[in-house]
Design brief:
With 196 residues, this protein is α+β, with helices and mostly antiparallel strands. The protein folds into 2 domains: 1-45; 46-195, Galactose-binding domain-like (Jelly Rolls, Sandwich), CATH 2.60.120.260. 19% of the residues lie in helices and 40% in strands. A hairpin with a 6-residue loop joins strand 2 and strand 3. The protein is elongated and about 85 Å long. The termini are far apart.
Length: 196
């Protein structure tokens, strides 16, 4: 029979260090599992920029369609608050200096949500008039599961009119897939249709 091995001080210290590492790792995993889903959910939810309140839909001249964007709750993935370029005016029905600039352009998104179904047939996207910052491609996603690819928006702020067969939705999201320049975003988004 062999004699029991003597445990040196160095061995005891090493075992203690590894035990400490194991405990800290276990605590980190437990905290991560507890709080990580909330962090992911918050990042996907974005920032509610504007709720419609008493805003009215804007009639489109020469037709029965109206711009429903002012009646939507607007949510943005991020904003450039340092330069006061928030998404608050991006869906107000006015092509003006109230532009939305995303903190990180590629992958940034803007969602419009209505409290009742909207029948829509056209979305007009206005790029920012800044010639150095442009949306090169994007994606429109609807809550009915459909998706539309968007080509480069006209530089200088002219609208890109995307027309389609009528669809009934409660929300639409525009995502910037590719952009150039330091401050890509939108000057305005208009959604033409009627609310049920």
């Amino acid at each position: 029979m062999g004699l029991p091995r003597e445990v040196s001080v160095a061995d005891a210290q090493r075992d203690g260090i590894w035990m400490g590492v194991a405990v800290v790792t276990a605590i980190g995993i437990a905290l991560g599992m507890r709080f990580m889903p909330t962090a992911i959910r918050l990042s996907k939810e974005g920032v509610v920029v504007r709720r419609p309140g008493a805003t009215k839909a804007i009639d489109t001249p020469g037709g029965n369609l109206r711009n429903l964007a002012p009646l939507a709750t607007v949510t943005a993935s991020s904003e450039d608050t340092a330069h006061r370029q928030t998404a608050e005016g991006v869906a107000d029905g006015q092509v003006d200096s109230n532009e939305w600039v995303a903190a990180d352009a590629a992958g940034a998104w803007l969602t419009l949500t209505w409290d009742r179904p909207a029948v829509i047939t056209e979305i007009d996207l206005y790029d920012r008039p800044d010639p150095a910052s442009n949306v090169l491609s994007g994606t429109l996603s609807f809550d009915d599961g459909s998706v539309m690819m968007v080509r480069a928006l006209p530089a200088g702020g002219a609208p890109e009119k995307i027309r389609f067969a009528p669809k009934t939705v409660r929300s639409v999201t525009f995502r910037i897939d590719r952009a150039q320049g330091p401050s890509a975003g939108l000057d305005e988004i208009m959604v033409m249709g009627t609310l049920r």
